[in-house]
Amino acid sequence: MHKSVLSLVCCLFFFLSCQEEIETMPNGSLNIVLTDEAAVTRTLPEALSDELRQQFTIELLRDREGTIVPEYKGALKDFGDQRVFKVGSYQLKAYLGENPSLALDAPYYYGEVQDIAIEKGKATTVTVGCKVANALATFEIVNQEVFDKRLKDYYVEVSAGGESVTWKPGDATHPYFKAGGRVTMALIGTSVETGQEGSYALNPIETVKAGVKYNYKLSMKASNVSLEVTTETQQEPITINETVPDSWLPKAKVFSEDFDENHVLTYTETADALSRAGIAYTALRPVQDVEFAFNFADKHLEHLNKTYLLSELSEEDRRALAAVNIVLPDLTAGSTEGVIDFAGVTSGMLTHDGGQDTDNIIAVRVKANDRWSDAGMYTIRTVKPVFKVGYYPGNVWTKEFTLNTLTADSVKTGNLDKFTDIAYEFSADGNSWEAMPGDLRKAGLSPGTSYYVRAKYRGEVPGEKVEVKTYPQTMLENGSLEGATVLAGDDGGISRGTVYGWDGWATLNRVSTPSGATAYSFNSRSGCRPTDDGHTGKGVRVITLGYVMGGVAKPKAAMHSELYLGTSADDSGNNKEYGTAFYSRPTALGFWYKCIENIVGNDVSLVKIQLLHD
């Protein structure tokens, strides 16, 4: 029990000491960049793919007063863009692979940097030049037809460090071996003539150099006397990017910068063709093939719906795709990227079933380094244009209205020039539609009622529904001219000097009654007087009269009386205004009148009705 307690105390002391160092020592940060060191000297791209870099293992060692202690070990992908460490001097190692004595397709990549100083409050970037730290051999049969006549089932056996691997003609794999060791090789095969197996030693590698590719070219003389195999050996430096096994490489990538994050690209029917509508791909090795499949909902494109393989595309398929302006890439030897361009086909894409969205689905996958990529699924969605019919406010009345034809201003999205078979429709309820008359004038409507109109094109694609409300029917104030009012004078007897008025109407009665009730009837009386001889009873009698003192035969003034809507004239005949405003746009105006001739029969009457728009 005593030992257990002592041990616990020691552990706590050690923990507290480490904690104190972490909290009291200042920190800096480190960022790591990996490059292909051998590529720099050969003017090749030195950048490693991000997918490959992330697979490297990173070891970071700190010099703590002469003692090297590990600070970090893990994959670069877990290191992050930047990580904080204590101030001090560091060493860094970066490697990928196992570095076996001998194995097929087993490159080993390594790089290190010494004396890295991490300073307080500073971000340090370290570039690590990595290289191939082992070596490989490649084999080429120069005159294979001669080999095939003399040998069967032949192969090259490679031995190193007690291990052996074989290479056969046509193999895509290569033997890798550790630097510094000795490698032996032999051509082994069975004689076609004798049926006996034989072995023919090739030039060995006495001391393997790191980062070197040993190229063996094997040739055989066409002699029936004996087998003579000649070996030509070359050495050349090799880069990381040249040696990455296909199994280490990521799949080809299918992508698009033109589609949105949901892989959807929207095209408005009748608009100009989209400027960009490409689905691209890229790979680290030359692209071997491209597979693409269409599921077009567009009726005039659905004949293209099937799966295509670019390497096996028939001339008939090529012509069909070119006819709708789908541009395909070429499988050019060594190409690692390409684009399938759909921009040209968009200008002819249509919606369906009266303007419903049409989804045209495209799937693309790419083969590179003998692996198929994941399928990229993309959709070109065709939507109907946004447009609506318009009308001038002055063309809406109480019982009718007239529409305008579509103009460019009426079309918010799309292209009016590409609209065909344009029609205009009317609805009383917004659901059931009928054709508008050819002159776009709809009559026989109810006042103060909402109706609906729309335009459509291609015989089926409707625009926005637009409400048109007729004006309410507004009756003129006191239109029946009931209830004459005595504004001045005496309404008794012969009505001498009486000034009559009617609510809502104006007259010149004050002009013709300057003397009031004291004057004689013919010389001072209203030119507009109430009568019971109207259309439905009451009415107004409008007469021509003479007025002002001067006798019956020779009045000093004469006047054609007026009954009108507006403002009555004063005693001097001034301030007279014609017309009155009210919120209505009547489809028709109605009035009733009759002419009563005088004895002479030479009266001239004028009845004038005007509807003016302010």
UniProtKB/TrEMBL annotation:
Gene3D superfamilies hit by this protein: BT2081, beta-jelly-roll domain
Database matches in Pfam families: DUF4493
TM region positions: none
Endpoints of the signal sequence: none
Tree of life domain: Bacteria
Protein name per its UniProtKB record: DUF4493 domain-containing protein
